[in-house]
Amino acid sequence: MIYFDNSATTKPYPEVLETYLKVSENYFANPSSIHRLGGEVERLIHKARQQVSELIRVKQNEIVFTSGGTEANNLAIKGIALEHQSRGRHLITTETEHASCYSSFQQLEDMGFDVTYLPVDEQGRISADDVKNALTEDTILVSVMHVNNELGTIQPVKEIGQMLKEYPKIFFHVDNVQGIGKVPLQYEQSGIDLCSFSSHKFHGPKGVGFLYVRSGVSLFSLLTGGDHEFRNRAGTENVPGIIAMTKALRMTMENSKDRMSDMLQLKEFLRKRISEMDRVLINTPEEHSAPHILNFSVLGIKPEVLIHALEERDMYVSTKSACSSKSSDVSRILEATGHDYERASSAIRVSLNFENTLSEGKEFLDTLEEVILNLRKVMRE
Amino acid sequence: MIYDHIIVRYGELSLKGKNRHHFENKLKETVKRKLKPFTQVKVKKAFDRMNIELNGQDHEPVIKKLQEIFGIQGLRLAAKCDLELETIRKTALEAMRDAGPSVNTFKVSTKRNYKQYPHDSQEMNHLVGGYILEHTEDITVDVHNPDVEVKVEIKPEAAYISCIDYPGAGGLPIGSSGKVMLMLSGGIDSPVAGYLTMKRGVRLEMVHFHSPPFTSERARQKVEDLTKVLTRYGGNIKMHVVPFTEIQKAIKKQIPDNYSMTVMRRYMLRITEQLAYKNDALAIATGESLGQVASQTLSSMNTINEVTNLPMIRPLITMDKLEIMDISRKIGTYDISIRPYEDCCTVFVPSAPKTKPNRDKANRFESYMEIDELVEQAVENTESIFFKEGTAAKEEEAFEDLF
């Protein structure tokens, strides 16, 4: 099997599953119980929080565990908007955000907030100046993703954050679900107030994630009913998920250090050969894009057909974001970059992990060429 | 980044005359142990300082570790180069550029330990400063208030050039002043008192009073966690957990409510004194701050202190709560201290403790108790745990493989 759909989800590391099982079995008590068993589990979570904060270099009390990236994004965006609406009701984001951000903003629009969706250039990028020009007296939140999940485009979040430092009233949220372990980012130094992460994108279990909330930032809770997570998010902690995620994050950061050059090499190898293919266009920008995502359009072939043809050979890639791939054919993201209908509706995304090898890449390319050739023959007849 | 060295300066240490060697060796041991995780880094002792070769290691985490070590006055990030004038000038220029974008003024200060060097300090200042002026724009010399001071040190073996200084933790190296028992409750104050006592070179042992089931395991865990944080600064630390339930009960039974707190403190002090004798400690440290609570009024201290004649070290005695909290945050104990568990100081507190107790009354009330026996029993049943520098406690080792 060749699995190149790691932006949709990654396979959990075996060590991570081992931890998940052990914690479920041995540390099942409710961390809020005051007896010894509860205390033990509470310490376990405390340790996890400490380790996560060390891995991403923030403070311990700045980590809020959630049920995943979607909840983290929802909590950040709605949490800020609802808590601070008395200061202003204008929000800024981009046209290419993940569905969990995008629809949070749409919900807020229905509630009477004013949202600016910044258009992106043909590489899918905005600039700090674009944000600056959109600011109004009423702006309270800017939300920009770090790495685009479909294109791999890296947004200049550091520049945006530093520009926003001059506007202390405005909160800055970054969706870093695709960037963690792949593209380094400093949170505090980059003026980031909130940042979302999802466990299953870095070989952890599903159903768990976390939000970095800079200390001093207050949120409107979406889930209420207890003092958990510094009163930001009620609900008994997903203990095995949290501990397993912490291990996955550590392993990912280590792999990121050791194997980044292999990943870059593989991506460049894929890019080079794919760009030479007939009527195939690369959509991922050559500069300032993530090392694990390569998006390209195979003109004239419906992407679903290509996916299914590849899956028959036990190779797995995707069309666009898994979270929106069941709705209409055209990628909202590619459309936003200004590509025409044909290109925007024929996109394929290859996304890598640190364990993928060059020989997998080679095998994949050979198969891809063959499949395209065959499909085009059929289409023409 | 052109910086490849960190110069460790001792400060007070170099004044210590005959003991200096002893201090320096203690310090070098600590530095080496602390920097062990950085495999590329090499530690070298020079005459009046230590030179740390980074060998490609990022300097930031190294500086952070070094700032935890008592006995270090200051840290200086430096670039080493040969003694050719041209090289010195070039390195100085680069060091200056590395110092940051917002630099408008500078000065050069040369120290020439190597007196055979052909240019003297004044001359060097001009030679290097002139070169920097020639090769930069919009930067001027300001000898009184420069944004950056380019320090050039000429040693026989090489020149060291630096623009960036970091403060050290100050104080004396741990172990150079003997041993002290710290009464550690788990609140905000006592860990800070521990930190400040260690600053003067003291090796600490912790004494904690545990009263199960009135105080929970979590309260004890809190104290263990605090101790672990303090090992960062003080190396290995032994902790004594004293079973205190029996004494609490006896006090409750025999002492009037408004004197129970005073008497409880007297027992704590007696037990700590015994533990000090047993462990060769010569003094007792506490987190008392004058007037902060009922047990810390002058009358209370006078009455409580009667039971021991060991020296009492009270580093916080004149500090305000806010000052104490600031240090607590800085040394990383604050977040642990504010965990909301009952400790030995909070559970048995009477509703109206006496703020002006006196020795006579305390002695009279206590005369009905079997003091020696109670103390002896508590000391005998005391459990001692050893915390190694920077390592996790036993229980956390079980956690270790989960992460």
The Cα radius of gyration of chain A reads 21 Å
**Average pLDDT value of chain A?**
93
For the secondary structure, the number of strands of chain A is: 12
The biggest sheet of chain B, with number of strands, parallel, antiparallel or mixed sense and barrel status, is:
8 strands, mixed
Name given to the CATH homologous superfamily of the largest domain in chain B? HUPs
Side by side, the strands of the main sheet of chain B go: 2-3-1-4-8-7-5-6
Query: Ends of chain A: how far apart?
Result: 31 Å
**Could you list the spans of chain A in which at least 5 consecutive residues all have pLDDT below 50?**
none
The H/E string of chain B reads EHEEHEHEHEEEEHEHEHHEHEHHHHHEH
- Which bin fits the share of residues in helices of chain A? 40-55%
CATH topology of the largest domain in chain B: Rossmann fold
User: What overall form of chain A do the CA principal axes indicate?
Assistant: globular
Give the number of domains of chain B: 2
CATH architecture of the largest domain in chain A: 3-Layer(aba) Sandwich
CATH topology title of the largest domain in chain A: Aspartate Aminotransferase, domain 2
Mean pLDDT of chain B: 89
Percentage beta strand of chain A: 5-15%
Number of strands of chain B: 14
Question: Helical region count of chain A?
Answer: 12
